[in-house]
C-alpha cells in the first residue's frame, strides 16, 4: 500500500491552520511582551518613588538630628557656663559610675591595685580636709546648722508672705475694677 497523495485543498487547509497558529503565537508573545514592559515601567516608577521618599526622609532625619545636636550643645554650654562646679561634680560621678560598672581584669588588678589604693587614700584625705576647712569657714562666719535652718525657714516664710500679699492685692484690684 502506498500513502495517498495529499490533495491541494488539504495542504492549503493545513498551511492556513499553521499560519493561524503562528499568528496567534506571535500575537500572544507580543501581548505578553507589552504586559511585561508595562509591569517593568510601573515597578521602576514605584521603586524610584520609594527611593526618593526614603532619600527625603533620611535627609529630614539628618537635619533633625543636626538641630537636636546643636540644641544639646548649646544647652550643655549654657549649663557649663552657669554651673561649672555642678558639671565637674556630675562628670566625676558619671566617670566613677562608668568605672565601677566596667569589669576589672586580673592584669588591671595586679598593675593598678597599688595605685588605686593610693588614689583612694589620697581622695579620702582630701575630702576630709575640704570638709573640715569648709566647716571651719562656716563656723568663723557664724553659720551653724541651727542658724542655717532658721535663716532658711525665715526665707521660706517671707516668700510665702510675699505671695499671699501679692494675691490679696490682685484680688482687691479686680474687685475695685469697674464692671461693664
UniProtKB/TrEMBL annotation:
Biased composition (Low complexity): 46-55
Superkingdom of the source species: Bacteria
Biased composition regions of type Basic and acidic residues, renumbered to the chain: 23-40
Chain spans, region Disordered: 1-78
Name of protein: DUF883 family protein
Species name: Sphingomonas gilva
